[in-house]
Amino acid sequence: MTIAFFRSYLALHDFHAEPFILLLDCEIDRDIVVLNNRSQFVAEATRLALAACLLLSAPHIYADSIFNQLKDPSDGWFDVSDWVLNNAVGFMPVPIIITEPAVGEGLGLAALFFHPPEGYTEEQSANAGIKVDEELPDIGPGIEADSEAGPVTDFVLPDVTAVAAAGTNNGTWLVGGGHFAHWKDDSVRYDGVIGYASINMKFFGLPGFPDLTNGLDFNAEGLFIDQDISWRLKDSYFFLGAGYTFLQVDASFDLGQIIPGLPTIGRTSRQSGLGIFLAYDSRDTIFTPSSGTEAEISATVNDKAIGSDFDYSRYDASLHKWWNPDPKWVPGLRFDLQYVDGDLPFYSVPFIELRGIPALRYQGEAVAVAETEVRWNFHPRVSAIGFLGIGVAAESFSDLDEAPSRATKGIGIRYMMARKLGMHVGIDVAQGPEDTYWYIQMGSAW
Fold first, then answer.
1. pLDDT higher than 70, residue 277
2. 281: confidence class by pLDDT, cuts 50, 70, 90
3. Which of 60, 273, 310, 402 sits a CA distance of 20 to 30 A from 410?
4. Are 401 and 420 spatial neighbours (Cβ–Cβ below 8 Å)?
């Protein structure tokens, strides 16, 4: 939900670039982080619910029942699958952990409200999870058949409404809310968010711009709205969708950081954009995939004709692929490409997004990223991962092959916290070009 679901577009004075999406790595998943890639709001909300199971329990459940639901009867290990499956309707407060180095470390709190999806009654859902019945529709691709170590089919992802607030140790804060719903046997999906944020980060320059080694501190504060709706194409894994984004931001930085005595400059700007996207998702689970593909292409246009102060276009393409050649090994591969064209605020320039590199550290109007990860399931519950990444940020698409590349590498540890949902949690340590950072991960890092 990042506040996985919170887009933070920033704009500033006379520099240019596209509404950049700030991935706060809230609740723990950097993937999330990219809302321009239409991350699944309900998956993020459920991740938060899983995290809450470590600390919270529903008041109507007795202590002995809680203990039983937090232990997997198949192996006796700690597992929250039954807790989530049996309590997937109602209200749940959830702690948020922020580990994005660009904004510092922080905490927050979210309130999640789970509702039965269309076709499911409260009576059918209450205290027993939301179950698939022969008379009820299947949820379609996403959670596949049960196995000793895999996810189950008898859990239907609920509709989710959420409100949240969070802050970090560098003064960044945000508040907001969102809603995810699906209708007609999951053939139509909607997710929307609205919020207000004040973001403190650093600007390090752009290709062709003087390098700012230590960065310039800036603040961007304002309102953001994002609305998406998509339709499943027949009974396939494909979704075709459209979206609208709105951002009004007061952005500023202190020129006194360059020359003492210079004033703070700023600008209030508005961005309004319409977009379309085509997505494909055959992952065996939306949490920690072991096989399948997630891919998307999208185009977004900001134009003065629809209320924007800027005229520009943004194009994105992504491909995330997982294989499972052996039960103990799960290799994965990720490719992301972003390109912007036109007159736009420089905070919106795409940036290299890899573990080991803070958000906005390397920006360019064209950005390409590749990353590979291998998970070794050396124990039925515990696994180790290793990952390598490389990213390029260039002044234009044609300059990508000549721009300097930035490499990252790292290792991590995972614990299968929800076997029936295919959900792993853990910690990654990543080394980038300049420093080493750590990240809490819940679900896939992508």
1. yes
2. very high
3. 402
4. no
Statement: residue 97 has pLDDT above 80: yes
At which residue do the structure tokens 């490719």 appear?
A: 335
Cα 410 from Cα 389, distance rounded (Å): 9
Beta bridge partners of 229: 190, 242
Look at residue 122 and give its three-state secondary structure.
helix
Calculate the alpha carbon distances from 357 to 50, 151, 296 in Å.
Answer: 27, 32, 23
In this structure, what token pair is assigned to residue 131?
């179950």
More confident residue, 138 or 386: 386
Question: In whole angstroms, what is the distance from residue 98 CA to residue 169 CA?
Answer: 10
What whole-number distance in Å separates Cα of residue 141 and Cα of residue 326? 23
**Closest to 102 measured CA to CA, from 442, 439, 360, 410:** 360
Question: Global pTM?
Answer: 0.79
All structural domains of the chain with their residue ranges: 2-442
Per-residue pLDDT tens digits for 371-421: 999 999 999 999 999 999 999 999 999 999 999 999 999 999 999 998 887
